[in-house]
């Protein structure tokens, strides 16, 4: 998952520099925010791990969330990026 995130970060940086591809700036901003939550979740979970050193059940739950939260934030960020890149269809009233 780390290599995918590195490539995705490179894509976000490229799109941030070359903005002609961005159709929805709010979606692009939300993609960056969700992507930024990935390292924040790692830091929070490491702090929780340090606080719960003697509790085995808590360690197992933290391990589960450590895999799930970055994948969730990555997926949500990717959906917001798609929203930013693909123009929204405008429905016509006569159709």
Basic shape: elongated
Number of separate helices: 3
- Total strand segments: 0
Spans of 5+ residues with little confidence (pLDDT < 50)?
Answer: none
Distance between the termini: 44 Å
Strand content: under 5%
Quaternary structure type: single chain
The biggest sheet, with number of strands, parallel, antiparallel or mixed sense and barrel status, is:
none
Radius of gyration: 18 Å
Based on secondary structure, the structural category is mainly alpha
What's the rounded overall pLDDT mean? 89
H/E element order: HHH
Helix content class = over 70%
Can you offer a commentary on this structure?
It is a single chain. The longest helix has 30 residues, at 56-85. α2 packs antiparallel against α3 (56-85). The protein is mostly helical and 95 residues long. The protein contains 3 helices and no strands. The chain has helices at 2-17, 25-51, 56-85. The mean pLDDT is 89. It is elongated, with a radius of gyration of 18 Å.
């Amino acid at each position: 998952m780390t290599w995918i995130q590195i490539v995705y970060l490179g894509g976000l940086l490229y799109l941030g520099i070359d903005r002609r591809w961005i159709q929805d700036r709010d979606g692009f901003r939300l993609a960056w925010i969700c992507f930024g939550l990935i390292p924040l979740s790692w830091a929070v979970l490491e702090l929780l791990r340090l606080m719960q050193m003697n509790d085995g059940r808590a360690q197992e739950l933290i391990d589960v969330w450590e895999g799930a939260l970055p994948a969730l934030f990555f997926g949500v960020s990717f959906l917001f990026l798609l929203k930013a890149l693909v123009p929204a269809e405008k429905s016509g009233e006569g159709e």
